[in-house]
Write a structure and sequence with these properties.
Elements (H helix, E strand, L loop, with lengths): L9 E3 L1 H14 L3 E5 L2 E5 L1 E4 L4 E4 L4 H9 L3 E7 L2 E7 L3 E5 L2 E6 L4 E6 L6 E2 L7 E5 L5 E9 L3 E6 L12 E8 L5 E17 L5 E11 L4 H24 L2
Antiparallel strand pairs: 1-10, 2-3, 2-6, 4-5, 5-9, 6-7, 7-10, 8-9, 11-13, 12-13, 12-15, 13-14, 14-17, 15-16, 16-17
GO molecular function, one term: cyclic-di-GMP binding
Keywords: Bacterial flagellum, c-di-GMP, Cell projection, Cilium, Flagellum, Nucleotide-binding
Pfam family, one: PilZ
């Protein structure tokens, strides 16, 4: 974590660290807890000057492994900023009558304002879709290619109007992400481009690609979207590990 270029982004001292952690707690933002033996999605249940309490993960095995490891990294995205800090160990605790993790408050954390949000590729199976309306009328079903807290990239299946204008806001776009649920958003069209691939017949195939920026993502939608991104990231990592 301690790269010289990042020194200006460190928050040190109880008040500074607590301020960031309590923002994560208040907003209910999901966090990713990573260590040498795996990772899981959690959230901050409580933070004070003496103790940080994290929610248990959804998998009992992951929770037990986490209690055994030393040296963990916690990452989160909040309001366009990346938050990261290290913990030496998590201990078993209870919060509101339910199992939880506890640990001393970290002495420092890294908070970097991102120029761009972290993007994750949408899965190929099952396919995620974006349902919208073309500006001049007519329904559009677009294949979701990548997603972030800042926006989405989609591929156009079928005919595309030739007069699409960058800068236009598309209202009521519905993101259908299968088992992860749906989101309805407004987004601004930033760029009209193309994705080029080579088919099995060694032919070049060009598919129109549209890039959008979210214009009105609410706190609840941001939490849901971050949870989806973390879940997709975990699935991608687990798949990559299986093929090593």
């Amino acid at each position: 974590m301690k790269e010289p270029d990042n020194e200006q982004y460190y928050k040190r001292g109880t008040l500074a660290v607590l301020g960031v952690l309590r923002d994560l707690e208040h907003d209910g933002m999901p966090i990713m807890v990573s260590h040498a033996r795996g990772q899981f999605i959690s959230r901050i249940l409580s933070a004070d000057k003496d103790l940080l309490v994290l929610d248990y993960g959804s998998n009992d095995y992951d929770n037990q492994v986490t209690l055994e490891v030393r040296s963990l990294t916690v990452t989160a995205e909040m309001k366009g900023a990346k938050v990261e800090f290290s913990l030496e160990q998590l201990h078993e605790a209870h919060f509101g009558g339910l199992p939880a993790f506890s640990t001393p408050l970290p002495s420092e954390l890294l908070q970097i304002q991102r120029r761009e949000y972290f993007r994750i590729s949408a899965p190929l199976d099952p396919v995620f879709y974006c349902h919208a309306s073309w500006p001049e009328g007519g329904k559009a079903r677009l294949r979701l290619q990548d997603i972030s807290l800042g926006g989405i990239g989609v591929l156009v299946e079928g005919e595309m109007p030739g007069n699409l204008a960058s800068g236009a806001t598309w209202h009521g776009m519905r993101l259908d992400m299968g088992e992860y649920g749906e989101l309805q958003v407004d987004a601004q069209l930033l760029h009209v481009g193309a994705r080029t691939t080579v088919s099995g017949k060694n032919e070049t195939v060009s598919t129109p690609r549209l890039s959008f920026r979210f214009t009105s993502l609410g706190p609840v939608q941001e939490r849901q979207l971050q949870q989806i991104i973390f879940s997709l990231e975990r699935v991608a990592r687990e798949k990559a590990m299986r093929f090593r």
